[in-house]
Amino acid sequence: MKKRLLAAFLAMAMTAAMVTGCSTPGSGGGDGGSGSDSDGGSSDAGGKKRITYTLREDVPSMDPQNSNSISSSSANIHVLACLTRNKEGEVVGDAAETWDVSDDGLTYTFHLRDGLKWSDGEDVKAEDYVYGMQRLMDPEVASDYAFIGYILKNGASVNNGKAKVEELGVKALDDKTVEITLEHPAVYFDAMVSMCSFGPARKDLVEEYGAEYAADPEKAAYNGPFVMSEWKHGDELIMTKNPDYWDADSIKLDEICIKTVADAKTGVAMFEQGEVDITIVPSEMVPQYAEGEFNTEAYFTGADDYIMLNQTEGKALANKNLRFAMNYGLNRKEYNTLVNYDTYVAAQRLVLPNVTSADTTYGEAYPYEPFPLENDNAKAKEYLDKAVSELGVGSAADIEITLLTTDTEGAKKQAEVLKEQYEKNLGIKVEIDQVTYKERLQREQDLDYDMVVTGWVPDYSDAYSYLELWISDGQYNHSGYNNPKYDELLSKSTTETDAKARQDLLFEAEKIFLEEDAALVPLQLRQDTYLVNPNIKDFNVYFVGYDFNLVYADLAE
Amino acid sequence: MAKYIIKRVLLAVVTLFVLTSIVFVLVRLLPGDPFSNPKMTPEIKANLEAYYGLDKPLPVQYVTYMKNVFKGDLGYSMKYEGRTVNRIIAESFPYSADLGIRALCFAFFFGIILGIIAALNRGKKLDFFCILIAIVGTSIPDFIMGSLLQYFFGIKWQILPVAQYTSVKHTILPSIAVGFYTLASVSRLMRSSMLEVVTSDYTKTARAKGLSEFRVTFKHQIRNAITPIITIMGPTVAAVLTGTFVIEALFAIPGMGKHYVDSINMADYTLVLGMTIFYGAFLVIAILIVDILYGIVDPRIRLSGKKA
Fold it and tell me: Looking at beta carbons, which residues of chain A come within 8 Å of B35?
């Protein structure tokens, strides 16, 4: 009897396994029924123009105001028409056809185009943009990215609960006019409003779906070049062309698919099989793809990495000469080869040279190499000797500095190369302290470290974005750097209305920061290398606000 | 039997309660918090804490959380805005379970057969072959196995897709990669347990009775040798069905595996707790089922213990 029971049980289990074995989850019923969805790659049976790119994690949020990562904001610029659109630094009108700036640079008036529609047929109104920005600053919405809106008049006080949302400096003068007042003039503001944080939101849908606004395609509306049509969380997000977009005639693609592929090597293998069109290449694989049948392209991500030095009183690195020694004792070139396979660019200054400066780039307007590419041991020794006597220690070997770093493989390698270089070139002692990413951030904030490899990703293309960090009472200044001269220059720059004069002030500040104070050790400018289907035209990766931009991309037949 | 099951279920509930409470406290002891990022400011963090109710005293948070758990509500994830933990599990578990079932079918089916073949051919070439597979299976880590499969079947020979999980063809390589380790341990266990049985008295008796070799092997030896396999089934099933971090990442499968690691790295409190409860419940249930199965297969270890 028992045996028969067991047999029956096993038979049942097997049958269950077989039945479930017939289709995979998410394939929507019958096996292969949704084959066309899952084929990926650019060629599609229906002749649709479709581009698939990979991301290492699922897009965390499609809610424009709650978007707090580059992958979220990149996806959002495809489905939303913000007031302006950033085309690799060139700012053009999107929902706004034109805009005026008051003489004092504080008031921006945006005039919306005629006949703008949401994907559900509703009219796009100025009020939708006002609501979007109010939502960004509303403490109850608790957006991670609210800080970006502190530039709006009363932005910070609204976000801190000291002022009402209605007091925010954003108004709809009528259905087609948005007036924005700023806390201080900002030449980069027209580029800034192209970010999805300042994008429109639908009050009726937010009220209907609450926290789940935009968590699924049907829980939001879209007014951008594409609409979100499908989102299998953790797997893929599909955006299809929006025929009602005002510039739909210029949009060439029918579909964009974002595929979650956690392992970058898998993404490369999928690219080789023709299943995806754009994928990131892990840095250790870049050399092998440098010359070959495939097309690789490297783009700056905007991330600027440096060794942050804790210069609060009592710390060894509060000694300026020691900080100079750290800068001259580092071989940035060798470091970049050993750690990054030369896929990044060694940094010698603070500000990313690519950022906009009046009519050109900052790097071209102000070429500057305060520290050498390769180590200069003679100069380093000069500074180090001074530091040794000032610190009152016997010799360089008595100086011990702990390098705080994260517990990933990459971070470990980075730390070991730095340790070896400093111990060899300067003769000081470097200890490595590996902690989790979250703990590292906490200890940076608490100033509980000696030095740490960290970095900054700008939110707008302007030198100020990198420089404002180091204002002595700055929110993100976790180094103890404090120089009134520096603060004054930056503060002057915010009221200077002449673009060139303003940039001069910023460059002056950068020089003080590095040449006078050696306040940190510039390390590397990050670049991402992608394998790109050679048939893709007009695809770009930008370093501020978004990375992938396929809005105006095309696919050759 | 019914009394035994009820007792076990009650015990399971208590276990889960204690587990959840411990993890609730432990997760708060992790350095950093869910909202720390390089651009976080104290004011914005305060807004976020209020939004998720983290500004209240810990005991209050605990009571609220437990109440919700009893209602089956695991709360909103802190990393994935607007997605509940229930939903994240509901969306990712089917992938992990599907992969796990395929892997287990593969592993147990071939593992048991290999073990039997090895034992019946002890010391011969076939035995060495089976042992070789077992050694290879237990000593090669799954990510290397997965990469090798991808390289040969996907890239070099172009027979099977390298990644994703959209058709039956796509499931073959990851199932083998996940199942291979289990296959190896099952075959080793089956082999040694068969060897014990082969030399036992009842085998001799069965032969003495003049039963055919087929009957001796299937009715007497295999049935007795299979009990240890059932013992390892509980934890194995729970572990394999609830997702494997490495293989799912390697094959771009949207399963649960990544959430175990990511949620801790991101200090996503609600997701960590939700995953713990889910996995804990799954494990407890799997072990319970195995215990019951065990009793059915082997009457000697019926646990209810009839009163004399």
Answer: 144
Task: Give counts: helices (H), strands (E), chain A.
Answer: 18, 23
Look at A139-153, A298-312, B9-23 and tell me which has the smallest mean pLDDT.
B9-23
Cβ-based neighbour number of residue B223 at 10 Å: 15
Question: In sequence order, what DSSP letters do the residues of A343-366 get, joined into one string?
Answer: -SEE--SSS-TTSEETTEEHHHHS
The residues, ordered by sequence, that sit 6+ positions from B307 with a Cβ below 8 Å of its Cβ are none
Residues of B in contact with A212 (CB under 8 A): 82-83
Tokens 């997605």 belong to B83
Say if residues A346 and A336 touch (Cβ distance below 8 Å).
Answer: yes
Of residues B30, B47, B163, nearest to A270 (C-beta): B163
Which pairs count as long-range contacts for A1-4, CB under 8 Å and 24+ apart, including other chains? A2/B296, A2/B297, A2/B299
Quick check: A215 and B82 in contact, CB under 8 A? yes
- Does the distance separating the beta carbons of A233 and B80 come in below 8 Å? yes
**Assigned token pair, A400:** 């011990």
| Yes or no, beta carbons of A233 and B88 under 8 Å apart | yes
Give the amino acid at A229: S
Interface with chain B: mutation pick from A266, A444, A445, highest number of B CBs within 10 Å: A266
> What is the model's pLDDT at position A525?
95
pLDDT digits (tens, 9 = 90+) for A479-514: 999 999 999 999 999 888 888 999 999 999 999 999
| Residue A118 region by backbone torsions, left for phi larger than 0, else alpha for psi between -120 and 50, else beta | beta
pTM: 0.88
Euclidean distance between CA atoms B117 and B115, whole angstroms: 6
| B299: confidence class by pLDDT, cuts 50, 70, 90 | low
